[in-house]
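From the methods appendix. Each design record in this collection lists the tokenized structure first, followed by the designed amino acid sequence. Records were kept in a plain field format so they could be parsed without special tools. The example shown here is representative of the layout used throughout.

RECORD:
FOLD TOKENS (263 positions):
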């Protein structure tokens, strides 16, 4: 069965240590952390390193590098540096820069900065960004001439962008070090309504198998045994399980039940 990771978005109101401890308590195989370069301190790194060591959990990814026309590369490199210090395997990137050539150049910069750390620089597409679908993401990555580049697939963004699962199945597996996973309602937000798109992505996701996404098709289109970051941002889950460990347990149990039918 695929290893599963607790994505930081499942417990967005909690810090790194609580996130790591919730992942272990919930029975996840890995964990992901949110790194805000403006707020992350040496103490955060020290405490997160100790929590990772105590739980034995690998750090699947850190997020988010959000490329914008005016964003500072030093801030983005700091996210990478924190990930490298903690042994992260991937850094999640999105881009709100309409200049795709500039996005590719900045991703190349990040890949070069990541050399020696083993971190893959994973570009995620979504209609809330300027890299809106699979084809756009692949076109940007075609301009990144570096082996650390990667593509991140998230089922809700695949569906909302109208991206083709058949085309995902044709993606070079070397570009896919991990994927995100979740379910979602059938009703799609208006792509022109940014607030509705964000609300859909951060509040309305559902447990695997409880929504309307073609998860089985997507699962079989991905490389076998791929680590799955369970990116289940959900207002309903936050309300039902205010304690991070109980929320993580509910997500892990539902995910493993779903995977048992498809793996």
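DESIGN:
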């Amino acid at each position: 069965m695929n290893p599963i990771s607790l994505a930081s978005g499942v417990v967005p109101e909690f810090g790194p240590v609580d996130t790591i401890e919730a992942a272990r308590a919930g029975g996840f195989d890995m964990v992901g952390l949110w790194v805000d370069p403006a707020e992350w301190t040496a103490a955060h790194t020290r405490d997160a390193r100790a929590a990772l060591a105590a739980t034995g959990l690998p750090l699947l990814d850190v997020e988010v590098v959000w490329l914008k026309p005016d964003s500072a590369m030093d801030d983005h490199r700091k996210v990478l540096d924190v990930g490298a210090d903690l042994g992260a395997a991937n850094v999640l990137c999105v881009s709100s820069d309409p200049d795709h050539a500039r996005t590719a150049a900045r991703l190349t910069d990040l890949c070069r900065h990541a050399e020696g750390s083993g971190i893959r620089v994973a570009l995620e597409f979504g209609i809330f960004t300027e890299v809106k679908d699979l084809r756009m993401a692949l076109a940007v990555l075609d301009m990144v001439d570096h082996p650390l580049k990667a593509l991140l697939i998230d089922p809700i963004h695949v569906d909302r962008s109208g991206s083709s699962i058949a085309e995902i199945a044709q993606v070079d597996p070397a570009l896919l070090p991990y994927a995100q996973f979740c379910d979602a309602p059938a009703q799609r937000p208006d792509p022109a309504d940014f607030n509705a798109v964000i609300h859909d992505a951060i509040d309305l996701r559902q447990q695997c198998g409880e929504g309307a996404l073609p998860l089985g098709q997507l699962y079989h289109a991905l490389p076998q045994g791929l680590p799955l970051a369970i990116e289940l941002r959900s207002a309903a889950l936050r309300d039902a399980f205010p304690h991070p460990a109980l929320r993580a347990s509910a997500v892990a149990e539902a995910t493993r039940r779903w995977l048992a039918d498809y793996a």
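APPENDIX NOTE: Residues 244-262 form the longest helix (19 residues).
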